[in-house]
Design brief:
Length: 364
């Protein structure tokens, strides 16, 4: 299949691996920020193919995982309101909040429905005019434009019972935050592929300029990732950190301007609360004044109650790249994909679930 087969080419992959081995002389740390990259790297056994000089870390790029308990609790509190239909992406259903999950709330009788897009939620609102339909808006810059489109669609159709709980996160500010925290001394960053299709590569320029860290945007096939690592190693070994794109078929430096315009017509930049990192200025999106009436949090009166973190769960430090899933005492014992304790074991892009499914020796 075009655009797939050539990026899974074994011979090309072997050549890239050989070149990486040849180029890499000093110990370096690379972080992939995107949960999709984490899955691809494990699925294709890429960590094992790289030289011992390269340590790969996973970052805070799984949208479900980085959603703070305080925000999950808001979604659950909204689900308890009468005459409300909660609509959400499937991954969010089983994520435990402080005391419950959307799945448990559904089992108790709340109307919680999985949708594949925010547009589906608008249709549910249209078909249920006597109910308030709330979409749980999680995700990065990749999904925010589609949610913005759903809000405009609802407005244009005169649908008055559609709301969004905006929990969106922005990627470059959290990269900056991880670099500022400085717990992991990164030499290079594998920049997210899907996010970059929207924002482009320009927003990453601060990474080499301000931190002297190499950065390359990657796709999700094995050859994409190996090419990205090869380019990162080259930048690091030659002492020339910059921003490059190893995913030219999906990403332009300037991004997708119509999608960005749509996103910023409906949303404005705000603070966001990240699991394991805390409140980070300018790292999220909220509805702007013009579209404020669609904001579920301001429209409904909810009291999510006190926040409680899952005991023993170290998702927070895993999301900062400080620890790895096998460092958690609960990993694979009391915490499994069937009985997840924390969000990193629930989401298909979560580090713990990925280690569980693909990290056969748990050594990563
Ligand atoms: Fe949290 Fe489970 Fe991962 Fe441990 S294994 S960090 S409890 S999600």
């Amino acid at each position: 299949m075009k655009f797939i087969d050539e990026y899974r080419d074994r011979e090309l992959g072997k050549r890239l691996i050989a070149r990486i081995h040849h180029q890499s002389t000093k110990p370096i740390k690379l972080m992939e920020f995107c949960g999709g990259h984490t899955v691809a790297i494990f699925k294709h056994g890429i960590r094992q193919l790289l030289p011992k000089t390269i340590e790969m870390l996973s970052g805070p790029g799984c949208p479900v995982c980085v959603t703070a308990n305080s925000d999950l609790d808001k979604a659950i509190a909204l689900a308890h309101l009468p005459n409300v239909i909660i609509t959400t992406f499937g991954d969010m259903l089983r994520v435990p909040g402080s005391y419950s999950s959307l799945q448990l709330t559904k089992a108790e009788g709340s109307d919680v429905r999985v949708v594949y897009s925010a547009q589906d939620a608008v249709y549910i609102a249209r078909d249920n005019p006597d109910k308030s339909v709330i979409f749980i808006g999680i995700g990065f810059e990749t999904t925010a434009p589609t949610i913005a489109a759903s809000i405009q669609q609802a407005e244009q159709a005169g649908i008055k019972n559609y709301y969004v709980l905006p929990l969106h996160k922005l990627c470059p500010p959290i990269m900056k935050s991880i670099l500022d925290i400085g717990e992991v001394n990164l030499d290079g960053i594998i920049c997210p592929g899907h996010v970059s299709t929207i924002i482009g590569s320009y927003p990453y320029q601060f990474i080499p300029d301000d931190y002297g860290v190499a950065s390359v945007v990657s796709g999700f096939e094995p050859v994409d990732i190996l090419l990205c690592v090869d380019m990162l190693v080259n930048q690091i070994e030659t002492g020339q950190p910059k921003v490059e794109i190893a995913y030219r078929r999906g990403v332009k430096a300037e991004g997708n301007q119509p999608a960005l315009k749509l996103m910023y017509t409906v949303f404005e930049v705000s603070t966001a609360n990240w699991r394991g990192i805390g409140v980070v200025p300018s790292s999220g999106l909220k509805l702007n004044n013009r579209y404020q009436r669609f904001d579920a949090e301001t429209h409904f009166n909810i009291d999510p109650g006190p926040i409680r973190e899952p005991q023993g769960c170290i998702c927070g430090s895993i999301l900062r790249g400080v620890t790895k899933p096998p460092d958690c005492k609960l990993f694979g014992k009391t915490c499994t994909p069937e009985h997840p304790v924390g969000p990193c074991m629930v989401s298909s892009e979560g580090s713990c679930a990925t280690y569980y499914h693909y990290g056969a020796d748990y050594g990563g």
